[in-house]
Amino acid sequence: MSASAPSPAVVTEAAGPVPRAEEVLTPEALAFLAELHRRFAPRRAALLEQRKRRRAEIARTATLDFLPDTAHIRDGDWRVAPAPAALEDRRVEITGPTDRKMTINALNSGARIWLADFEDASAPTWENVIGGQLNLIDAYERRIDFTSPEGKTYALKDNAELATVVMRPRGWHLNERHLTVDGEQLPGGLVDFGLYFFHNAQRLLDLGKGPYFYLPKTESHLEARLWNDVFVFAQDHVGIPQGTVRATVLIETITAAYEMEEILYELRDHASGLNAGRWDYLFSIVKNFRDAGERFVLPDRNAVTMTAPFMRAYTELLVRTCHKRGAHAIGGMAAFIPSRRDPKVNEVAFAKVQADKDREAADGFDGSWVAHPDLVPIARASFDAVLGDRPHQKDRLREEVRVAAADLIDLGSLDARPTYEGLLNAVQVGLRYIEAWLRGLGAVAIFNLMEDAATAEISRSQIWQWTNAGVVFEGGEKATPELVRQVAADELVAVRTEVGEDAFAAGKWTEAHELLIRTALDTQYVDFLTLPAYDQLAG
């Protein structure tokens, strides 16, 4: 084919039929994806190699520091672009996948923002990837509704009452196996971004909003620079003004925590904020410092709250950095799912959610996340109490905050230790989540919490870390591969009893068990659970 007419992206034979897929995979959209791939996939590959080199350096030095080469950026006088009107007030954000029911419920939830998730809360089956795009288009065109198997109907409220969508594409590490360009699989993030942007950028402008994105798993400012270059090209390609795109970056890796200012700087014409995560952040610490000795061994994940000193250092630095540069600081997730049967459980959980949101609002955050619509009023009340009628509190510069490089990795400040109960919970949650993910579900209710892939990552990583460190629990039992295999085997038996033979046979329990054991115990640590899991994902 001539250079003047390069071939578009090709849908592979592995892609099964998805109703109305032709509305998303138009010739023009496939050509746009091919252009994105040819321009940016080589840089993405180089940055993934750079991650490996940085990880090797951490393994050698067991430390991290702010970058000396970018001190001029941290010391410079600059600010990100002003927020568009639709992103000015972000006091409550709800997260969730883009299935039809969730799309309606999230938009109707009363939250200011909906993080429409193609990443950790979505298993990337072809049906989810394409169906999610269709659901968002249908929502913007107001032709979406849903009727449950029980006959309950769902429909959108008036436009003025709907949440603003901030879409989260997949991270740089994942491919999309159902699309190729010149025989190469496309990066999943470029597929998610490209299809959404191509079909909706102008549509959103017409609605008085714009193409807004959450950027996950970023590990360096150079990765943020790549996204910025993608935005510049994409805006030119479809003929909308530069700066229309807005991106909020999740600071959910330990390396990114040392480059917050640089990340905002690279995206400054398109940046709208940073978000403070929890499970992915802890997962990143375990992954990067997994062989750095006992001082980096984390206790049970549930014992590491956002009030732990090294987590406080991270969140305080994030708020200060954002407000210094004119960006929104968005707090973490409240994952509780209200019980319809046990008001006492709800009472205790709601009080914890309120305490968390009160703390974030008092610390200077401009908004925060919830996983369930019933938590929206609780989070809103916490931020209303601090913000009043103001859309944010960027005027709180937090200049008193001083965070040294060592503070961000001072895990020795924790009192807690790993426990056998923590190991059991990691196996239980990991097994249940992976099984659901292999069936195409990315947001999974487990033990009254809405879990996504980050939970499975920290669960299997803690098992890996504890067994490799030879952790001895309080009762004298040592964390060994043999103990993990026994706990996992017992849990598999318990699940079979719990769900029944038919449901067990129809599920993916055996595959999930094998994948958990492999990613938790293999000598060679797997960087992301979702990489081998994707090979086993049907559809």
How would you portray this structure in words?
The protein has helices spanning 21-24, 27-61, 71-75, 100-108, 126-140, 188-206, 221-238, 254-257, 260-266, 279-288, 309-324, 343-363, 376-387, 420-438, 453-469, 481-499, 501-506, 509-521, 530-536; strands at 10-11, 92-97, 113-117, 145-147, 153-155, 164-168, 175-181, 184-187, 212-215, 246-251, 271-276, 328-334, 367-370, 444-446, 449-451. Helix 2 packs across helix 6 and helix 14 (420-438) packs across helix 16 (481-499). Helix content is 47%, strand content 13%. The model has no long low-confidence stretch (mean pLDDT 97). Strand 14 and strand 15 (449-451) form a beta hairpin. The strands form 4 sheets. Strands 6-3-2-13-12-11-10-9 form an 8-stranded parallel β-sheet. The chain has a 3-stranded antiparallel β-sheet with strand order 1-7-8. It contains 19 helices and 15 strands. It is α/β, with parallel strands linked by helices.
